[in-house]
């Protein structure tokens, strides 16, 4: 593991105000190494360079942490290569996370990553999100999984009584917000600063309206 990667991650975490112990930082970098190794066969990410992956995959995923501070359960829908679910799981071993993807190649990788990284708080599920009916969670999240209205329609049944959505977006989703159903409350939209990532990022928090 190169010292450049370690320093890049460490500096990024400092800029984000995140305090992780050395073991967690090492696990994050091991995850990147696994991603790179499996990527050749399974096409998990367009990135080939580990240094780029630190910003694009690790730090970008970790912008989720402040928004799930009080959550006990989380589902990462369309998890793909495990973002944001795996980096979040490494940083929050108390948070029970389900990684869901319909692509069996991707969930094969996710299962292996969970085993190799020793993530006892993670469950991997293969299948279509609309077919998942045996689990309700505090937070449903996704990174570029679908338009907001589709994301809501496909995952509404997964939220528990006080659950909410944390949708990770690139540029401010003006058009998508116009199509959010009337019975859904968009209660917070934050522009995010991600170190080592020269691209816009936004977090959109939504919840079903009560009554």
Automatic annotation (TrEMBL):
Reaction(s) catalysed by this chain's protein: guanosine(527) in 16S rRNA + S-adenosyl-L-methionine = N(7)-methylguanosine(527) in 16S rRNA + S-adenosyl-L-homocysteine
Gene Ontology MF term list: rRNA (guanine-N7-)-methyltransferase activity
UniProt xrefs under SUPFAM superfamilies: S-adenosyl-L-methionine-dependent methyltransferases
Alphabetical keyword list: Cytoplasm, Methyltransferase, rRNA processing, S-adenosyl-L-methionine, Transferase
GO cellular component terms, A-Z: cytosol
Top-rank EC class of the record's enzyme: transferase
EC numbers, comma separated: 2.1.1.170
Coiled coil: none
UniProt-recorded name of the protein: Ribosomal RNA small subunit methyltransferase G
Organism: Conchiformibius kuhniae
């Amino acid at each position: 593991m190169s010292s450049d990667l370690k320093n890049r991650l460490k500096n990024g975490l400092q800029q984000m105000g995140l305090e992780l112990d050395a073991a967690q930082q090492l696990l994050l970098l091991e995850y990147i190494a696994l991603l790179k190794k499996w990527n050749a066969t399974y096409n998990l990410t367009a990135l080939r360079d580990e240094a780029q992956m630190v910003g694009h995959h690790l730090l970008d995923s970790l912008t989720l942490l402040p928004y799930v501070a009080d959550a006990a359960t989380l589902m990462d829908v369309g998890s793909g290569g495990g973002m944001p679910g795996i980096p979040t799981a490494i940083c929050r071993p108390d948070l029970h996370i389900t990684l869901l993807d319909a692509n069996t190649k991707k969930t094969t990788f996710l299962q292996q990553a969970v085993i190799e990284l020793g993530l006892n708080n993670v469950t991997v599920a293969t299948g279509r999100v609309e077919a998942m009916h045996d689990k309700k969670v505090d937070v449903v999240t996704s990174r570029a999984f679908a338009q907001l209205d589709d994301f809501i329609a496909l995952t509404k049944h997964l939220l528990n009584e006080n659950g909410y959505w944390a949708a990770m977006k690139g540029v401010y989703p003006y058009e998508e917000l116009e199509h959010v159903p009337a019975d859904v409350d968009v209660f917070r939209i934050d522009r995010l600063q991600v170190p080592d990532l020269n691209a816009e990022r936004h977090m959109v928090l939504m919840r079903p309206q009560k009554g």
